[in-house]
Amino acid sequence: MSLYETLRQKHKEFIYHGYKIESDGFSFHFSIDDYHFYPSWKCEEGLLRDLSELGSYIVFNIGMAELVSYWKCACPPVVRVNCGSLNGEQCLWWKKLYFNGLGEFFYKNGIDADFEDFMTIIPQNDKAPQLVCEKPLSGFLVPVGGGKDSVVTLELLRKYHDDTTCYIINPRGATVSCAKTAGFDQSGITGVHRTIDKELLARNADGYLNGHTPFSAIVAFSAYLFAYLSNKKYIALSNESSANESYVKGKYVNHQYSKSTEFERDFREYSQKYLGNGPDYFSLLRPLNEYGIASVFVRYEKYFPVFQSCNLGSKTDTWCADCAKCLYVYILLAAFLEDETLIKIFGRNMLEDEKLSAMFDGLIYEDVDKPFECVGTKAEVRYALYRAAKLRQPGKLPYLLERYMKEYPDRPADADKTENFFDNDNYVPKELLPLVKQAISKRS
User: Would you tell me which of 87, 175, 241, 428 could form a disulfide with 146, CB atoms 3.0–4.6 Å apart?
Assistant: First the structure.
């Protein structure tokens, strides 16, 4: 019997007991038998004082997004929601998010999960409230993660700077520095602190299941709350079209599911129907692929010393220069920047490192799984490598780049598609689309 099956037999139910809202934050109470979890959020003092019914319901939904991180340690077959309210359609919506958002978790743990049976959500109250956002809204809330994508969003929205707020979960050096480099002082930054309950870490240490969860769904619901609290009309994400690609050949296993167009569409429908039809959630960069975003980002040299999107180096705000995410970003930028500039950013020439060959293969070969990081399509990587080689010729190419060009010396057949990519399946407001189109028309 697998660990997944053993744990499900041992732990039959996961319970969402409730949530507590105070003037400076909120917390949740979950349990699996005798194990109790109390994840918490902290924000500016007084921000949540006298929270409306709609605001309270949004917090309840943040708890629904949080709970999957705790549920996954034992994967109980039943989830009882003993607070808030959810109708049948909402239960199905959450079940779909959990199932697709846990695709990597299931795959890496060897779990053959079935959509019908992996979870049953049983709400105590099955009547969804009828809520309306009656506040006047204007301006933008931009989630900032410290990487190149949110930098491009902030720059494209520069003319709206005075009515824009940066939203940062667990502020750190790179996120705050990117916001400040974009011209925002502390008054233009909403920083919130999210804490994972140590009991979950203890269960992981005891051998319970662990793995990737749809964190961007937490970003979505929490950004919706803080946009509502700050009267913002738009939540401008920085998720690109490349986030839609599966990571495993022949299966739909997407590390970035909650950054995908499908999730964006689902969240918009959910928020319009159940969260008062308040702030408008969309990704400004959805029309672009990662290659297109990089081609715009390289124009903003002032961010080179401060941007950072390496998960391993996030605590120290450095690029570890030894993981698939670092290698991917290095390759993408190498299509536009010289090695001297890249070495200043990453600390070394990653394309010279033969030890990164396995990661490199996962980024370019169709029959090898993509590294489970937020990386773009293989077609983009191959074209970026071709462009990087042309930028460096004549001259000796670094090891990985030389290896690639020996195997693929010709311009990729899909190069024009990659170069001129524009995804019309997006929710960018019509008045903002020209900003995106103008940016790529001027790119390097």
Answer: 175
Rg of the Cα atoms in the chain: 22
Q: For residue 444, which amino acid is it?
A: S
Quote the CA–CA distance of 335 and 349 in Å, as a whole number: 14
* 36/112 Cα distance (integer angstroms): 27
- CA–CA dist 40, 213 (Å, integer): 17
Classify the C-alpha dihedral 222-228-230-233 as positive or negative: positive
Cβ-based neighbours of 42, under 8 Å, separated by 6 or more: 24, 25, 192, 193, 195
SS (H, E, C) 255-279: CCHHHCHHHHHHHHHHHHHHCCCCC
* Omega before residue 394 within 30° of 0, cis: yes
Q: Per-residue pLDDT tens for 236-279?
A: 999 988 777 777 766 677 778 899 999 999 999 999 999 999 99
Q: Do 268 and 427 touch, CB atoms closer than 8 A?
A: yes
Distance CA 129, CA 276 (A): 10
What is the per-residue pLDDT for 251?
A: 67
pLDDT at 372: 75
322 phi and psi, to 5 degrees?
Answer: -145, 10
Query: CB 194: neighbour CB atoms within 10 A?
Result: 16
User: What single-letter DSSP state applies at residue 347?
Assistant: S
Cα dihedral: 410, 381, 103, 17 (round 10): -170
Q: Give the model's pLDDT for residue 268.
A: 98
Q: How far apart are CA 227 and CA 234, in angstroms?
A: 8
pLDDT at 442: 67
Stretches where the chain sits below pLDDT 50 are none
Query: Is the separation of the CB atoms in 224 and 282 below 8 Å?
Result: no
* Residue 83 contacts residue 19 (beta carbons within 8 Å): yes
Tokens representing 2 are: 């697998």
Beta strands in 216-364 (DSSP E): 234-237, 280-283
- State the pLDDT at residue 15: 98
Count of alpha carbons within 13 angstroms of residue 173, beta-carbon side: 13
pLDDT for residue 92: 98
pLDDT number for residue 246: 72
pLDDT score of 274: 97
* Phi then psi dihedrals of residue 193, to 5 deg: -115, 120
88 class by beta-carbon count within 10 Å (0-12 exposed, 13-18 middle, 19+ buried): exposed
Whether the full predicted model's pTM is greater than 0.85, yes or no, is: yes
Q: How many CB atoms lie within 10 A of CB 431?
A: 7
